[in-house]
Automatic annotation (TrEMBL):
The lineage of its organism: Bacteria, Bacillati, Actinomycetota, Actinomycetes, Kitasatosporales. This is DNA-binding transcriptional regulator, AcrR family. Residues 14-74 form the HTH tetR-type domain. PANTHER family: HTH-TYPE TRANSCRIPTIONAL REGULATOR BETI, HTH-TYPE TRANSCRIPTIONAL REGULATOR RUTR. One of its GO terms (molecular function) is DNA-binding transcription factor activity. It comes from Streptomyces harbinensis. Pfam families: TetR_C_11, TetR_N. Residues 37-56 bind DNA. SUPFAM superfamilies: Homeodomain-like (SSF46689), Tetracyclin repressor-like, C-terminal domain (SSF48498). InterPro entries: Homeodomain-like_sf, HTH-type_TetR-like_transc_reg, HTH_TetR, Tet_transcr_reg_TetR-rel_C_sf, TetR_C. It comes from the Bacteria. Keywords: DNA-binding, Transcription, Transcription regulation. The keyword Protein biosynthesis does not apply.
Amino acid sequence: MGMTEEGPVDPRVQRTRRDVVDAATELFTSEGWAAVTHAEVARRAGYSKATVYAHWPTRLDLVRASVGQICGTSEHPRPTGDLRADLITALLDFADDLSRGHLARVLGGVFERAGSDPAVDEMRGQLYAEGAGPLEAILGTHLPEEAVEPCVALLTGGVLVRVAMQASPATPEFIEDLVDRVLASARG
């Protein structure tokens, strides 16, 4: 049985929360922010709108729960210690997530609303930390601390522009070239 500050959580409440957040997350990743409505989440989760509103009074609450689930369940490739190979593997994973569309929809919804609410900015930071954290860890074991953040920005930015803005595939060749250029610059 789960716990809260108030004590144990009823298993039915846990199940309801899980089902609703699963439904909201599936909607958010497959159709985007606008699709995450109380009515549609309730329908997909099999609960009444009143139940959904009781736990998530606003659409932002549903989206925030979705981002929490996305970040809490994301998996990243395990580093091997080979800087170049680890960066290529991590960036191919990032490019795949963008190419399949689900990550692009999530980021697009958050970017579109950035600056509109501190909770949205918090979600943006949470998504960035989840995505950039593994790259920072990989780079941090091989490069000086001051080189890590610029390299993360160049690497993730290069893949994001290629896939989301240019609508071109981030092929292994593209990513290998990007990694080589960034590492050459960092090692200067």
